[in-house]
Design goal:
By secondary structure, the chain is an alpha/beta fold. It has two domains: 159 residues, Alpha/beta knot (3-Layer(aba) Sandwich), CATH 3.40.1280; 58 residues, Trp Operon Repressor, Chain A, CATH 1.10.1270. Helices cover 30% and strands 18% of the residues. The chain contains seven helices and nine strands. Strands 2-1-6-5-7 form a five-stranded parallel beta sheet, with helices on both faces. Strands 3-4 form a two-stranded antiparallel sheet. Strands 8-9 form a two-stranded antiparallel ribbon. The longest helix has 19 residues. Bound molecules: S-adenosylmethionine. S-adenosylmethionine binds next to strand 5. The site of S-adenosylmethionine has 20 residues, from strand 5.
């Protein structure tokens, strides 16, 4: 049996949403190599009532529906073996995807990749989730950006992808992530491939020179230029 480096469990009311989304490229390879195991759980299967209800109207009135806490507590109890947060195994993290969460940054993904070996991703819907889930079960509340999605499923995909590619040996070449945007304080430099001349648009001459020191200098300058253009805020952190 494969000993997985990381297990990611996703809790959702729309398991079909995930389809084959984790069956491509780096994540697929990581799964096949035993680096990660990803399971999708239908929240409905953790309900105990006749109608298998996962949501209800909000106490205090107001619009919309709220995901009930009971199926989520049941799911965590089954998946982790306890819903006492202080008794979770040391490297287990229970993540609520939420626009109110801590912003997902490369450093956050890196921290999960380095520190965790079991991550449960809980996808909200409607107005959100009964706050008792947050109070009792959640170790990390994560937002993928300052906008509101209809559900946590796209956010779970983003979070899982950002983490899995940072797991040891997940990328084809160990150096592939080193120059990625946000690994330092710069965005990535521009990349080019064949053909050298496409409809009269040529690859920068320097990249054909074979002078690796000069190529490196050019890439750093381009990365800085791009960062100044699109993300001046990153340079303030230097
Ligand atoms: N009423 C909530 C609020 O204003 O904060 C928004 C609920 S949203 C329509 C439904 C679900 O989508 C949330 O519970 C969360 O799981 C997910 N979601 C929405 N935006 C998100 C974001 N930026 N990052 C992560 N998850 C998000």
């Amino acid at each position: 049996m494969l000993a997985f480096r990381m297990k990611i469990d996703v809790l959702t009311i729309f398991p079909e949403f995930f389809g084959a989304v984790f069956d491509f490229g780096i994540i697929r390879r990581a799964k096949l190599a035993g680096i990660v195991e990803i399971n999708i759980y239908d929240l409905r299967s953790f309900t105990t009532d006749k109608h298998r209800k996962t949501d209800d109207t909000p106490f205090g009135g107001g619009d919309g529906m709220v995901l009930k806490c009971e199926p989520i507590f049941n799911a965590i109890e089954q998946i982790i073996g306890t819903c006492e947060r202080e008794n979770y195994p040391k490297k287990t993290r229970v993540v609520l995807l939420s626009p109110q969460g801590k912003p997902l940054k490369q450093a956050v993904a890196r921290e999960f990749a380095d520190e965790a070996n079991h991550i449960v991703l809980i996808c909200g819907r409607y107005e959100g989730i009964d706050e008792r889930v947050n109070d009792a079960l959640i170790t990390d509340e994560i937002s993928i950006g300052d906008y509101v999605l209809s559900g946590g499923e796209p956010a779970a995909i983003v979070v899982a992808d950002a983490i899995v590619r940072l797991l040891p040996n997940a990328l084809g070449s160990e150096t592939s992530a080193v120059n990625d945007s946000f690994t330092g304080n710069l965005l990535d430099y521009p990349h080019y491939t064949q053909p050298r001349d496409f409809r009269g648009i040529e690859v920068p001459e320097i990249l054909l020179s074979g002078n690796h020191a000069e190529i490196e200098k050019w890439r750093q300058a381009k990365a800085l230029e791009k960062t100044r253009l699109n993300r001046k805020d990153l340079l303030n952190e230097i």
